[in-house]
Amino acid sequence: MPSSCKEIRAALAQCLQESECVMIQRNSAADCLRPPLVDGLPTRCQQLKRGFGDCRRGMVDMRKRFRGNEPVSFRKLQDTEGSGDGYQLYAGKSAFSGGRHETDGNEKGPADWREAENEKYRQETAAAAAATAGAKKS
């Protein structure tokens, strides 16, 4: 097999060897990759299986014949997993990394334009009232 898929294949094999399907239920790794046992695999193994399939499919894809097959590196997946960004992929990059800012759900929303206009009106009327009160005293 060409070297472009070796790394993700090794990661899939390692994940399968550590899975409950192989360790506890004593099924072979090949059996664990077929239905109905594939549904019981951890999400990480299922994602590696999908990535390995995409890598193998990319080896025969004629659209990639000039640039070569570029599988997602397993090291990239480990790095994003360690940083907490997740390893869900979108266009070859982590789907959740590089966001604009962290959100916790308690952020103040942008001010409504009507509220801004009302505040401006209140300030103008308060200034006018203060000017009239100052004119009446003198």
TrEMBL record:
Give positions of region: Disordered: 93-138
Asked whether the UniProt record includes Disulfide bond among its keywords, one would answer: yes
Source superkingdom: Eukaryota
InterPro entries xrefs: Cyt_c_oxidase_assmbl_Pet191
Asked if the record carries the keyword Disulfide bond, the reply is: yes
The family assignment reads: Belongs to the PET191 family.
The protein's name is Cytochrome c oxidase assembly protein PET191-domain-containing protein
Q: Which organism is it from?
A: Podospora appendiculata
